[in-house]
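Hey L., structure's done. Input below.
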Amino acid sequence: METDAQFLALREIFSAALTRIDPYGMIKDRVRLEGDRLIAELEQQRHEVDLARFSRILVLGCGKASGRMARAVEEILGERITGGLVCVKYGHTDELSRIEQAEAAHPVPDEAGVRAAARIAELARGAGADTLVINLISGGGSALLPAPMTYLDGGKSVTLTLEHKQAVTRALLACGADIREINCVRKHLSELKGGRFLRLLEPATSLSLILSDVVGDRLDTIASGITSADESTYAQAMGIVEKYGVAAKLPPEVLRALQLGAGGSISETPKPGDPALDRATSLLIGTNHAALLAACDKARELGYNVAPLTCLLTGEAREVAKFLAGIALDVRRTEMLVKRPACVIIGGETVVTLTGEGKGGRNQEMALAFLAELERDPEHGRGIGFLSASTDGSDGPTDAAGAYASATMLERAREAGLSTAAALKANDSYHFFEAIGGLYKTGPTMTNVCDLHMLLVE
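Output:
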């Protein structure tokens, strides 16, 4: 029963974090209309737009949370909105009346995303100097808005395809590249990413409201920075391909585009100071840090002594798990970091380098590796509970947000004849936890600010 109580507490803590980072609530709390003035008031930034200057207001967007963000904007601006379109992941739509929604695949893009990108690009090109474009951007936007580029190679026009973009995404996801590196490559193969979308919007004025799903909250990385200046280069994109040795896994047309760009034959993405940025403003409305603070508040309310470590955690999921298991065991043994009952909370986003053919995600893999560490403990994790979960409710290509690890889960695995080592070797965390009831499923959360990892030590 002790572990069951821990799981209930971990779910409560995670749910409190999701409530704090609900994109609808965040926009309604931070954006308001006073007469003809649209005011966005954030913790460290305030921005006003005089709507009387514009005869049209267009709302465009992409990302898992963009539908819910659009609902808030509709309620604030109402009939002032001329039209618009947001592209969300399948199953992430919201109730909208003035802004259209398109659904597409994530994390590997599909044809529906290509069609949505083309429609959004068309709407952007039609925006004139009398238009205010409100862009709603959240995590997942890179995959949901694929717009493969066309380039010249020796006078011959070459157009990249959806299949090319899918191959790139799969290769980068499997090799262990982090989101910054993945997006650096994707930006340099797109007609929209890396700030190129802003060139389509000229001469319109744009205001981008952004929900961060990347560690460090860099605007040029969230959704591949479609409305931000891009400091990365084609040469850096080629460097990432070489670093992970994936050149042979990329289509020849993709590799050629990166090589031509690195050699200066394809124009770069907009850099700081580019005229395309003159009429563009980007505001960050939600972050992993906000989720971590909410989780801390709930843990204290439940009677735990809380130690928030960081919201910038990165690295290989199974290696991070060893570090977190060490912290848990140390707290149980010495209370050096925090007194028991203790709750240690960490935010960020890890990666998995695939070597097996199994099913899972970075959070499930972390929980599985954490469980493997508890096996080495003489007390087999007594008194320790761990939950690793994604705030978007979807961990990798699965229907689970993450997974639990504890002494009870370890005992269930033994009774079922399951091996943590074998499951790790196969990258098959999903089926392992499915068999012992350790998966954590939230369904679509309509938000996305990376992951939370939570330790309880009784």
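The chain is about 40% helix and 20% strand. The longest strand covers residues 305-313.

-- N.
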